[in-house]
Specification:
Chain A: InterPro entries: ATPase_P-typ_cyto_dom_N, ATPase_P-typ_P_site, ATPase_P-typ_TM_dom_sf, ATPase_P-typ_transduc_dom_A_sf, ATPase_P-type_domA, HAD-like_sf, HAD_sf, P-type_ATPase_bsu_IA. The structure holds 2 protein chains of 2 kinds. Chain A is α+β, with helices and mostly antiparallel strands. Chain A contains 24 helices and 22 strands. Chain B is mostly helical. In chain B, the strands form 2 sheets. A two-stranded antiparallel ribbon of chain B has the order 1-2. A two-stranded antiparallel sheet of chain B has the order 3-4. The chains are: A alpha+beta, B mainly alpha.
């Protein structure tokens, strides 16, 4: 994993958040949040009563009204601050990104020559030449050449990556630098639509759209606000019948305490912070909806190679067949691999070294290397002396040997199958018409995967492993890694079929991918995580991109999604549970003067009616900044079964939400009572 | 002894829930079963008569439209009959036509299953009106409510696009539930001395030689459906406190059970539809818990008596017997009151106005919540609405977007539910405030001070919850009260019914999310606690300020 992009709370962010808290008082902005808008209107009314007491006949209460006004104002500022702080962190990240988005000059190919143009003038389809040391002027695909590219600007990873035309490593991102060689790039994005542009607007939160769940919650919060508005407005005439006159600031205080200001103030901060946590994790989510969908995932489709296992199948053993010796197998396997640059080939030579086998590399000198091809499924070397060495898939080598009239050793199939059963891949080694033995290629499961799948199971998520291996190999790896299901010999279209099948059962599916042929499946999946190293098509189709190109991160993304939802639920529950205590603080305070018997309802033993109202109001205000860290960090998440998680969270945020304000209001009252 | 009586009734109810629930489930599951042989021919005849050939499922819109239209037609007929009852037959006592606003109020009251009575049956209605308007609506409004509740449950628990056929549900509610049950209960009551006759009012000469008029009529049949349909409108002004409506302890128990057993069995029916009986028991458990809490308050409060009367040196060892019938006593009265408010029947066997403040708080609070069993399905629908709300609030805490019975709760459902939860406090508190701001409203209060607040609050709460019991003591047969309570009853019934049908219509079309170990479960103890918590925090706290000024202030100042 690359270095994580730090998004610390610098003093700069805090300062600008404080400024924004005031800017956001603008009623036009406030209107979007009905809960806070009601508070603002109340604040304004109390302000008028404080400034112009003559018109409202409130001269005697200036001190109280001014205090209420200040507390209400701070309630608003605290709520604004929470949102501004969350946005500020995003903006800081965006600024870092913007620095990489410098205006560069591009060498655009025109006819046979090139022309230097500013990068903003490049359009989709233009071809540019980028040489060593130059900045790639825009998102595109390498159409010619191979180069190493420093992508640290977007990934934070300092080691350069190889980009070449064709295949799955052809996409390049604007703002990254070519550190060696020279490539021709076809531009794939118009200015303003590039990957970095999208990234900036995402982390800035400028285009943040509310998710369906946020919208539904907002509806509920708005209707609760309306209900309490009805409660408070109708209370005055009812009390009036008893000749109890309720002061407007007192009614406004009751209203503000009852409406869900806590969650109303923190809701957008929770959403932004959730996105931010994903970004800090070096994953770019294209929408908040995608992050929430991650929390809802039922099924996860994982590629075996690269995600569950390291993917480099390493030679781990030489197994002789048909009476050959182990040394002989090793010797010829090595000869066949001398010029083989594939990881498998290199691992054979590596095993020679560590296993202290010996071979004469002069034998291969001058020989003609036969590359691995999908049709032949073999590679090897034709030696100068006419001998031919082949290594490859067992059945392919068998056919090759048979075609030369050679015989197949009796124990070959048995040995091969036993390797496959253990999750390995057997490669047969043959010289001319004789099969000498097998190379045991082993694919190693990444450490800790088993525990993670166990966690996923506890969260109710089913894991399906996709692999091109044969069923036997696939089953062994699946067992070793502890996945729930696997698809062997899978083709890209199999993935779509599985996704569709799961979705038809109402399940939400997550998958990772990087190749162009993964794109349709990435688009079909509810959460598609594309690797940044992958093709443009894959990144386009996915709704998340992992800048570190680590496919196993999908598991953490799910945890972040769940944590986001839990944080929202926990603070909503907390906020609504708070009302119980606030009622017991304010209701007796409102009526005790007129009905002294009401004091029995003052269960907290608050000092005076005035101090009770002010204490409840102060608690209501300061709980917002106190909860900002929780909203930003998210509630602690442990992968437990739902019933346990719920029981735990209900105890903390539901019961806690009822008890905390009783204690909090009492403590505040002890202080406030010193003055009033 | 009192507690034993209560315990016996509760036990009988518990024993009835499962068999009755099973029967009701089979009525509406629309799968062939044994009862078809008994009722099938009658239903086929009715279907033939009303031209209901293929009883295709309806979308929620069609269902809502069907039940509304049916209700509108019945309202029109009923209103007309009340306005011209003097010219119609079976009017041996020569009762005149009903006044416009009172007719509006009465029709709104009976069509919405409220049965708030601003008239007195023995002097305001002919026998024909009692039977053709009042009893007809007692059947049809109960059948409407039952059908809508079942349609809602179907929406929650089935897949597809439709939530059943209203006309089929409506017909079956009559033929398989209310007619047979009403016949049985009527016969039982007749056997226990409840009158059932078309003879005019008796005039007898009392021992002092004065002429006394004794009102009689087809009482037993009305009494049966009054309770079975959780209607509550009495034949006589004194309702079930009247010795001809409710002559003894046994009829009292029959009346309690007949209004209680259908609402109480609905959660079980819901569990059957959901193919998970535990879902039903969780809802039932939450309802029963709230019920027992309320019953305890009512019983102990009435038993403790009225301190003001105790202070006068009057023997209060029996408890607060003011406004209660000696033949029922505290236990049977407290139980009846708690049940009638829970099942939103509104029948009374004692005067709620004279209950102790906390005793009077019980029916008031039950109607404010409107989820403690509730009448003809409304209680279940409301409780399920709170369940969805509970899921929405707490469900996020398992780290998934909220799902109820495998369906995602999204903005559309929340908007509809928001409209429903908003409506109840709005139509209770707003008219209460208006009543206190106008002399038209204030003038009707017979008992100023805190009790007056309770009187007004009770009147609108009873209307909004479609309960219909009166706190009495309120001079409410005036155009102001007739019109405002009439409107409150209509809004209280139809807004939430339509909103909830829309929720059902939206949920029924949704893709099901399979249940996993990571799913928020709604069939365990934890959810039972969440459900009660949601009802108390969202439903009850809303009314706390008003209650504090009414019954609680009265209680605290009583001494």
């Amino acid at each position: 994993m690359g270095t994580q992009r730090k998004s610390m709370l610098t003093s700069g962010i805090v300062r600008s958040a404080i400024r924004d808290s005031f800017v956001k008082l603008n009623p036009a902005t406030m209107m979007k949040n009905p809960v806070l808008f009601v508070v603002e209107v109340g604040t304004f009314i109390v302000l008028l009563m404080t400034i112009f007491p003559v018109y409202f006949d409130t001269k005697d209460d200036i001190g109280f009204n001014a205090t209420v006004f200040l507390i209400l104002l701070f309630t608003l500022l605290f709520a604004n601050f929470a949102e501004a702080l969350a946005e500020g962190r995003g903006k800081a990240q965006a600024n870092t990104l913007k620095k990489t988005k410098k205006e560069v000059l591009a060498n655009k190919v025109v006819g046979n020559g090139t022309k230097t143009v500013p990068s903003v003038e490049l359009r989709k389809g233009d071809i540019v030449v980028v040489s060593q040391g130059e900045m790639i002027p825009g998102d595109g695909e390498v159409v010619e050449g191979i180069a190493s590219v420093d992508e640290s600007a977007i990934t934070g990873e300092s080691a350069p990556v190889i980009k070449e035309s064709g295949g799955d490593f052809s996409s390049v991102t604007g703002g990254t630098r070519v550190v060696s060689d020279r490539i021709l790039v076809r531009i794939t994005a118009d200015p303003g639509e590039s990957f970095i542009d999208r990234m900036i607007s995402l982390v800035e939160g400028a285009k943040r759209q509310k998710t369906p769940n946020e919208l539904a919650l907002n509806t509920l919060l708005a209707s609760l606000t309306l209900i309490f508005l009805i409660v408070v407005v109708t209370l005055a005439p009812i009390a009036d019948y008893l000749n109890i006159e309720l002061q407007v600031p007192v009614l406004i205080s009751l209203l503000v305490c009852l409406i869900p200001t806590t969650i109303g103030g923190l809701l957008s901060a929770i959403g932004i912070a959730g996105m931010d946590r994903v970004t800090q994790f070096n994953v770019l989510a294209m929408s908040g909806k995608a992050v929430e969908a991650a929390g809802d995932i039922n099924t996860m489709i994982l590629d075996k190679t690269g995600t569950i296992t390291y993917g480099n199948r390493m030679a781990s053993e030489f197994i002789p067949v048909g009476g050959a010796t182990r040394e002989r197998v090793a010797e010829w396997a090595a000869v066949g691999s001398v010029k083989d640059d594939t990881p498998e080939g290199r691992s054979v030579l590596e095993l020679m070294r560590t296993g202290s086998f010996r071979y004469d590399d002069m034998v291969a000198e001058g020989g003609e290397f036969i590359e691995f091809k999908a049709e032949t499924r073999m590679s090897g070397i034709d030696l100068k002396d006419g001998r031919k060495v082949r290594k490859g898939a067992v059945d392919a080598v068998k056919r090759w040997v048979a075609s030369q009239g050679g015989s197949i050793p009796a124990d070959l199939d048995a040995r091969g199958e036993s390797i496959a059963r253990e999750g390995g891949t057997p490669l047969a080694v043959a010289v001319d018409a004789r099969i000498l033995g097998l190379i045991y290629l082993k694919d190693t499961v990444k450490p800790g995967m088993r525990e993670r799948f166990e966690q996923l199971r506890r969260m109710g998520i089913k894991t399906i492993m996709c692999t091109g291996d044969n069923p036997l190999t696939a089953a062994t790896i699946a067992l070793e890694a502890g996945v729930d299901d696997f698809i062997a010999e899978s083709k890209p279209e199999d993935k779509i079929a599985v996704i569709r099948r799961e979705q038809a059962e109402g399940k939400l599916v997550a998958m990772t991918g990087d190749g162009t042929n993964d794109a349709p499946a990435l688009a079909q999946a509810d959460v598609g995580l594309a690797m940044n190293s992958g093709t443009a098509a894959a990144k386009e189709a996915a709704n998340m991109v992992d800048l570190d190109s680590d496919p196993s991160k999908i598991i953490e993304v799910v945890a972040i999604g769940k944590q986001l939802l839990m944080t929202r639920g926990a603070l909503t529950t907390f906020s609504i549970a708070n009302d119980v205590a606030k009622y017991f603080a304010i209701i007796p305070a409102m009526f005790t003067l007129a009905i002294p018997e009401m004091r029995v309802l003052n269960v907290m033993g608050l000092g005076t009616p005035m101090s009770a109202i002010l204490s409840a109001l102060i608690f209501n205000a300061i709980i917002i900044p106190l909860l900002i860290p929780l909203a930003m960090k998210g509630v602690s998440y442990k992968p437990l079964r739902a019933s346990k998680l719920l029981g735990r969270n209900i105890a903390i945020y539901g019961l806690g939400g009822m008890i905390v304000p009783f204690v909090g209001i009492k403590l505040i009252d002890l202080v406030v009572h010193l003055w009033v | 002894m009192g507690i034993l009586q209560i315990f016996v009734v509760l036990t009988i109810l518990m024993l009835l829930v499962k068999p009755v629930g099973t029967y009701v489930y089979h009525v509406y599951s629309n799968e062939p079963n044994r009862t078809d042989r008994i009722f099938g021919w009658l239903e086929r005849l009715i279907y033939l008569l009303i031209g209901l050939k293929n009883r295709a499922g309806m979308t929620w819109r069609r269902y809502a439209l069907s039940f509304l239209l049916t209700n509108i037609v019945l309202v029109a007929i009923g209103y007309l009959l009340l306005r011209i009852q003097s010219a119609l037959p079976m009017n041996p006592n020569g009762i005149g036509d009903m006044e416009e606003t009172l007719s509006f109020n009465t029709i709104a009251s009976f069509m919405t299953n409220t049965n708030l009575q601003h008239y007195s049956g023995e002097t305001g209605l002919s026998y024909f009106a009692q039977m053709a308007v009042i009893m007809m609506m007692m059947f049809t409004s109960a059948a409407t409510g039952f059908s809508v509740a079942i349609a809602f449950v179907r929406g929650l628990t089935s897949k597809g696009k439709t939530i059943g056929n209203f006309f089929e549900d409506f017909v079956k509610s009559h033929t398989r539930i209310f007619f047979p049950a009403a016949i049985v209960v009527t016969l039982l009551l007749v056997a226990l001395q409840v009158p059932q006759t078309l003879d005019p009012t008796l005039t007898v000469t009392s021992l002092e030689g004065a002429a006394q008029r004794i009102a009689i009529g087809p009482v037993a049949s009305l009494e049966a459906i009054k309770h079975l349909g959780t209607n509550g409108g009495g034949f006589f002004g004194a309702n079930s406190a009247h010795p001809f409506e409710n002559p003894n302890g046994l009829t009292n128990v029959i009346e309690i059970l007949s209004m209680w057993v259908l609402p109480a069995s609905l959660p079980y029916v819901y569990g059957r539809f959901a193919k998970n009986r535990k879902q039903g028991w969780v809802v039932f458990g939450a309802m029963l818990t709230l019920f027992l809490a309320f019953l305890t308050i009512a019983y102990t409060s009435e038993l403790r008596g009225n301190p003001a009367i105790n202070a006068m040196g009057i023997d209060a060892s029996q408890g607060s017997m003011e406004g209660k019938e000696v033949r029922f006593g505290i236990a049977q009265s407290a139980l009846f009151t708690t049940v009638t408010a829970a099942a939103t029947t509104g029948t009374v066997n004692n005067m709620h106005d004279t209950l102790t403040p906390l005793g009077g708080l019980v029916p008031l609070a039950e109607m404010m919540l409107n989820v403690v069993f509730g009448g003809k399905g409304v209680g279940l629908v409301n409780m399920l609405m709170y369940a969805i709300l509970g899921v929405f609030l707490c469900g996020l805490m398992v780290g998934r977007t909220p799902e109820f019975l495998g369906r995602k709760i999204e903005p559309k459902e929340m908007k509809l539910i928001a409209a429903a939860i908003l409506m109840h406090p709005l139509i209770i508190l707003a008219p209460t405030a208006i009543a206190f701001m106008t002399d038209l409203g204030k003038g009707a209060i017979s008992n100023p001070g805190y009790h007056g607040i309770t009187q007004v609050l009770y009147e609108y709460t009873s209307s909004a919850a479609n309960n219909g019991s009166g706190f009495e003591g309120l001079a409410d047969n005036t155009p102001f009260w007739n019109v405002t309570t009439g409107l409150v009853m209509l809004l209280g019934r139809y807004v939430s019914m339509i909103a909830m049908l829309a929720v059902a219509g939206s949920l029924v079309r949704k893709q099901w999310v399979p249940e996993t170990i990571g799913t928020f479960r709604t069939d365990n103890k934890l959810f039972y606690a969440i459900l009660i918590g949601t009802v108390l925090i969202i439903g009850a706290l809303t009314f706390l300020p008003a209650i504090v000024l009414g019954p609680i202030a009265e209680h605290l100042t009583l001494g």
